[in-house]
Fold each of these.
Amino acid sequence: MQISGAQMVIEAFIAEGVDTVFGYPGGAIMNVYDEIYKQDKFQHILNRHEQASVHAAEGYSKASGKVGVAMITSGPGFTNAVTGLADAYMDSIPLVVISGQVPMSLIGTDAFQEIDAVGISRSCTKHNYLVTDAKDLPRILKEAFYIARSGRPGPVHVDIPKDVTAQIAEFDYDIELNLETYKPHTKGNPRQIKKAIEAIAKAKRPLFYLGGGIINANAAYEVRELVQKTGIPAVETFMARGVLSHDDELLIGMLGMHGSYASNMAMSETDLVIGLGVRFDDRVTGKLSEFAKNADVIHVDIDPASISKLVNADYPIVGDVKNVVEDMLEQVGKIDSNNYESWRETIINFNELHPLTFHEDTERLKPQWVVKRVGELLGDDANISTDVGQHQMWAGQFYPFTRPRQFVSSSGLGTMGFGFPAAIGVKAASPEKISINFTGDGSILMNVQELMTAVEKKIPVINIILNNNFLGMVRQWQTLFYDKRHAETDLSVQPDFVKLAEAFGGIGYRVKTKEEFDAALKDAVEKNVVAFIEVIVHRMENVMPMVPSGGSLFNMMLLEKKGDK
Amino acid sequence: MTEENQRRVVSVIVINEASVLSRITDLFSGRGYNITSLTVAPIPESKYSRLTIVTAGSVRVIEQITKQLHKLIPVLRVYEHEDMVEKEMAMIKLPITENLSDINALCEAYNGKIVNAGENTIIAMVADEPKRIDNFLNAIKRYNPKEIVRSGAVALER
């Protein structure tokens, strides 16, 4: 059929099964918004900032497993969205982001709201397109969705000049894609898998190192089976929280800079690292030369460039984690879980020596208690988003995750302001779950305008603001490494968060005690409205354990024993 | 693995489309890799172009370069050359007052000759292995070259 470029965008979304688009209109994208107005196949959520649109699409994608979609205009609309693109690129989140561009005849003339969008997005997307003719649009849109979701997922940006959205051309979406230069490798090499299984069978202290790639591959339940059948202990990255359930006896915990003592010690003592969907990020490994020093490494990942990038893989397996783990499960009989009995005991001893915990305080609430308490009260009924900073690490450490896609956070890029819009996207994707955003008094102000989005669309996100009147994580580093010179991190001057929420039509609570917190959370859940629960927490609490940047995993700063002070 | 920097030649076959060259050069600058020289031209009777990139890095860096190049969507193939024939071309502008027969003889030793003569200057060209081009450019110094242009290397696996 002969339709306009703008109509093609709508038709492609419908064909791809898109049910929610996050965005913000503007001059160069108006033709497409005109078609959005005319259709009723998907909902459009108007965020109040383009960055929030992309984060909402990320949250939507992480919670649903589908491609997230955002739409923005040219110039500042696009540049506002760049942080979201970069965030999705770092965390391998499949997105299609459509931006308007000035008409073709004006490109290169420094026109109003013109910016070289594909030039900017090139280094923070998996792929991008500048569409120069509407006849290419069906193919480009189909490729964009395919590239975003296949292989190692990532954001794809499609920049469409205004005259191309007006141009009439033939639309046929039933085309076969023929991407001869892009063929992701999904099946693991059987010989390598066999060798890996043999290595596991021979190892004395093997350790699963589970990463976010497992969630992307929808392989969490296969991995749970593999862990259970082999009896091999496992550590999770921050990205992998929820792959194993928190009560799985073989789950040691989170590893890395703020990983548990037992997790980091296990990684330091293991003789065989079994890395699944991981990328050996510096926040995980600490000092590379000391990381898993005496271990061989099995590394399964869909991205060949991740393998042996930082840590040499003795058993490299390029493939989709789900396929590879299924293949491994077929040979799991060769592995005797009894062999690892003493290794499991060693780890139990690590845990008893320095369990992941915190000290209660009689004067002020501890932020860790808040996270734990939400876990006790809501547990599996909640999806958890976070902003970036101390609260983020406490959420990763103390929330009792039970399932994959329960936890959404900006891991790689560490984007403050991510949490609230992401939690809106999460709620849009799974309305049956309570959407909680753990945030800080610093982070929440970076996308606080999303109160309007959530209130308008009746998306009841509960923001739990752990307020320590500090930019807490930076303050922690200043306390520990800058001789307590707290440069520009004291956030004593603050808005009234209760009134702020109310000003937008939400509901606000300020709580100082456990009883008040329980009552506020219960009330917010029952009222099912957009909420701020401001929790006044201990100002100087540090995230512990901590591996100082560039240090070895086994050299942790630990929680002081009670009475040490 | 050796951490020493070594010179490597990488050939990349890419779809000949808008901004594909930027994708390649952005990758090198964004990840802090070196480009010593880069040549690019369409492959006849195909929709592809061939780039030849001379780079330097440790074994691990070179491995990353080839893998990261592979990850770019329009990249069809990446050759990290081991056993190759490698050639480069250079053109030199010299004053016409220099000894032309000596210059011609020197050029011939490097598969070249004088290819243009104007009122005041001549242009000579040579085509040889990059190392030998270095030698030639050293030798030609005595004839007061006014301008030198090197093409960058191209290579074919044997």
Amino acid sequence: MTIAVIDYGMGNLRSVSQALEHVAGRGAVVVTHDPAVVAAAERVVFPGQGAMPDCMRELDARGLRAAVLEAARSKPFLGICVGEQMLFEHSEEGDVPGLAVFPGRVRRFPDAGMVDRDGARLKVPHMGWNRVRQKPHALWAGIADDARFYFVHSYFVDPADRALVTGTCEYGVPFTCAVGRDNIFAVQFHPEKSARDGLQLLENFVAWRP
Amino acid sequence: MLAKRIIPCLDVTAGRVVKGTNFVDLRDAGDPVEIARRYDAQGADEVTFLDITASSDQRDIILHIVEACAAEVFIPLTVGGGVRKVEDVRRLLNAGADKVSMNTAAVQNPDLVFDASSKVGSQCIVVAIDAKQTAPGKWNVFTHGGRNDTGMDAVDWAKRVESLGAGEILLTSMDRDGTKNGFDLALTRAVADAVGIPVIASGGVGNLQHLADGVTEGRADAVLAASIFHFGEYTVREAKEYMAARGIEVRL
């Protein structure tokens, strides 16, 4: 089995590939910028780090857009962080269009009213371990509802179709932190940095038959 | 609700953790990867490696440690010590670090904070501030382990590095470091209230109450400690249970 981790030059993919190797075995994972390798892979992981305008630009500069869209149509596909955000139509970050696989927009945490229940100011980026409320999905198997995952982000997806939502979180405001449809699952948090529950999610992805 | 983080810190030199550790059933008490794995198993939210290697020819050793650690420990990993250039940041991230911490180099060349965060993202850049009280309610930034007074106000410097793109501040009280008398809570609070990025409190933890105080009184987003965990006085799990019992959100 080959799991392709798409490398478009944005950030370090070692954590993602090593966590996948940890659950899928050595040799099962290839980090690639070659559209042919993406096309041949059985599963595809689409990570993303940094600003979404940069990610979109680098994806196109490497000629990977068509390969990503084809993978999102045809095989088990896991988006992570900006890799989740890029699946939507538009981002407030830099006012850029995304890949429009899913209807909806990417929004920033609001500037005002970001306080926790004790009235303390909440900082942006949202960085650290927060609880994820699940909607039923095969990729949550073996993971407790409300389990904590590791987040680092200032923007989040706002799907136009609420049926896409597979997980929610709260940080000043409630927000969508996982989406899914057919062969696609995508998360805002970092499963590769989320200890046991993150590895469980990756293991579920490796075994997933959507 | 977001959990307050507990971060064990390991001082590493020549490939070994120094200051000693006291895990009873470790095969090799000084092996950084094994210790990081142990803290992960105890529920640590992150692990920080501080490379205290003095000679530059041994610098690359830390890269191998980071590589080995990142292959086995799936929580965020921060690495600091000896970072001078954007290239140093890039190499540590490529080895598997999630965040890189810079201290003296940021003071000497603030553009480094801007250049590094522009290149790899603010979320990867931690600025470590060593602060020492110079008057009531006033702290200066020190470098070289607390020997050199930069003359800069710690709160002003924290705000400045935030504006330059730092994603997080690791704030150490030089007055408290190693004393086991608890964090400098006034310092912690002054910085945490002044910036919009997370602040990690460091320096002086001697018991679990100190950790809780860092969050409640100091308003830190995370607390870092070394010796109370290394010497087996407390596990990370015990620290979290203690904090949870005091109404602090933690990941258990």
